[in-house]
Amino acid sequence: MSGRALTGVFIAVLTLASAAGGLWWYAQRSDDAKAAQPATTQVVMREFSSAVTAIGAVKPQIGAEVRVGARISGKLVRLPANIGDRVQRGQVIAELESADLAATVARHEAAVAVAREKIGDAEARQKLSEATYQRQLSLLKISGTSQQLVDEALRETQSAAAGVQIAIREHELAQAQLREARVNLSYATITAPISGVIGSVTTQEGETVAAGLNAPTFVVIVDLDRLQVNAFVDEVDIGKVKVGQRVTFNVDAFPAQDFTGAVSAIYPSATIQDNVVKYVVAVAIDDEDRGLLRPEMTASVRIQLETRRVLAIPSRAIRQEAGRSVVHVLDGDGIEVRPIRVGWRDGPWAEVAAGLSEGERILLSTTTTNGEEAR
What we know:
Number of helices: 3
Number of strands: 21
Oligomer: single chain
Order of helices and strands: HEEEEEEHHEEEEEEEEEEEEEEE
CATH class of the domain at 51-62 and 223-306: Mainly Beta
Largest sheet: 6 strands, antiparallel, barrel
């Protein structure tokens, strides 16, 4: 190959290399320009279907757990109840020694009978004194007696009438004492005040119990058909909870099963757990789910809030400056730092309660083209 040909080839190769280098430089500059542009998003309307989560426990409803004890002192002679037994309202679950109480009842029954007989005797005396008085009046008309005897007969009549009233009151007193004795006797037989399952037994046959200001507890009865879930909701979320909202929850005993219910009450008094203010939300359990649950089971609760259509932005676009929430809004060729008020959150999205309008564009990153932070 001649020298002229070699020179031509060299020039062609150099031209191609220059062209390739120019193309590479242009593409690199385009990529850098794109990379320098901050990521943005648009303020849009979205449907929020949020929920409040809480930890709670299965509890008996008010009146569904009753501690049964004795109102009188005595020796426990019979305790047929055992833990786990199902009892009906009115069923005998314990008996105290009652021979002395039965004797007291018998004594007062006799007193009632005596008082009743006294009433009959007093009424007979009243009739006799009345007849005597009428006879003295008749004799006085024919001068067959004196006025003094008539007055004495009248006094006897009045005294006999008072005797009848006294006998009646004594009979009423004896009856009241008899009723009291029978009530005390009834205390020796302890019956179930509600239907349910015996949860605990705290005494044994043969033990002597002493009744004081607080009745000693024999058994605890729980109505397993009247359970609820008490969920402890953080004070931040309690304002979102309303009576009637649907609830799903799980318990450790049945982790694969979802139980359902609805909010039935929100307790007004707060509780403090680990220095956090929480409120008890009572959840009424649906009927079909009650059979498997037991008191004190731990429950993971999810309260379904209503679905709302709200103005929303990605949560990562929100910054904190000087104790307030702000976003960086594209305003023509510039960037405006605008404070906003944040409402609900639904996963990576946040509700904008105030400060933005639908369609505005905001920065997801606050870095500008020259690498300085936008302000």
